[in-house]
Amino acid sequence: MRKILAVTLILVFALSILGCGGSSKPAGTKAEYKANMKLTNTQTKDHPYNIGAQKFAELIKERTKGRITITLYPDGQLGKGEREMLESLQQGTIDIYVGSTGPVGNFSPTMNILDIPFLFRDNAHVDKVLDGPIGQQLLKDLEKSNLVGLAFWENGFRNLTNSRNVVKVPEDGKGLKIRVMENKVHLLAWKTAGLNPTPMAWGEVYAALQQKVIDGQENPVAVIYSSKLYEVQKYLSMTGHVYSPAPIIISKKRWDQMPKEDQEIFRKTALEVAQYQRKLNRDAEAAKIKEMESKGFTVTKDVDKAAWQKAMQPAFEEFAKEFGKDKINAIMNTK
Ligand code: EAX
Asked: How many Å lie between the centroid of ligand 1 and the Cα of residue 98?
């Protein structure tokens, strides 16, 4: 009996710690609603995700007059990978996520369309699509999975790195064992191009590269630089094969507790920070490449993108079947 009581007390105590701030019922008015929220991502604190997150936390605190505070947990402190983090959002144990769309497609399948290779021409094209009706609908679709999409920040155009040889055309990458995100679009595209892709949570990638369990991986310059992948990789190919948006997503459990006015503040602020965060990411890329080159990283800029597109053609046909040629064209033809 005593044991049961003790266990119950421990459980109640643990739950009260885990339960974080805020009430569980919808708050009646803005003035009553107080919360401390947890915002997480897999990347280091210098990655543009976290710089955007700092700005977001600052503005939210200011605009809610200190009623809502946000604590940042970068560097995978709350989960090894992005899929795991999204599960915690669904359960309501983490409030806010910033990360690639990669694993999001496992929760909200329409999002996978954005991970199709060579879909976007450039940054201006990206902004038009993500901030326009197509992007807004994809964020809306998340709600069916108990996730609320606020805006698209960014990770950036992804590039291939490896430790074996310079890669310009698909033949150079033949059989290369690379880590990909837990995303079936990426998996199929690389397989079709003749590489040997294997899905893995981000938190395991550095060690896997170091121990040569894999030869390579692909990510935007922001990630390659901040996670110091040049220490365990020799070659960077500027393939720019996929653009990785980074939706900022809030748990629907938390969202439904918030008064309308605070929801508005969150949406508006997330969108404002999106402009700031994308710009700082883009402006920093060239200097990061230069710095990595000076550390002995071999950077190949003259990648034959047409050859990669050709090699991935059978995969594109699969994607057209799955997502609809009209939907893919609507993105590609956005001017
Ligand atoms: O979202 O897992 C990945 O490769 C992601 O691009 C990265 O963690 C940032």
From this structure: 10
